[in-house]
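BACKBONE GEOMETRY TOKENS:
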Amino acid sequence: MKNERYPLISVVMLNYNGLKYLKKTVAGILRLDYPNYEFIVVDNGSTDESIDFIKKFKKIRIIKNGENLGYSKGKNIGVKKAKGKYVLLLDEDILVEHEALLKNLIELLKKKGDILNISLLLCDEHEEYTDYYGGFYSLYGLAYKKRVRALNIMNNSKELVEIASPDGGHYFLEKRHLKKSGDMMNPNHTIVMWEIMVSGGLF
């Protein structure tokens, strides 16, 4: 059955006055090659005509908060409204370039049964190396992150890196792991970083 092979995924994007980004990033989500996903945009009270732009796309479900509720609360509202078994959280300025992203995320979870969440690797346009892949902690707080070559991660599954904290703007997980509001930004779990499927910081 389709739902077993392709479980419903909710792509949840938070927006606040991000019209200039949405004009470039929405299309990438709508082109995703996956037969069972929904696209939700949570708007935190934008005043820049973001809502009018989003309304042009019938496949996008809009959640209008009416005011800026902040980053964590805004995304948690989107997660609560999401119908999918899995949730992909994105910021409005992240450009998805790989149409097979959702298929590959599901396949990775099936292959690697010990992965709880996946923090997507981001890379600035025209950059070969990046450190946008979550955080590490030590006794002294946030630890230094080594810059990695993006293509190594993309082409070699042995390059998977365990991290202590995801970046809230770009990660994937099963919805049931978010037990209460606020968990999205403070999960006490080990996250595995994978894939250069998106490019951020382009504008």
About this structure: Residues 2-199 form a domain with the Spore Coat Polysaccharide Biosynthesis Protein SpsA; Chain A fold (CATH 3.90.550.10). The radius of gyration is 16 Å. The chain has one domain: 2-199.
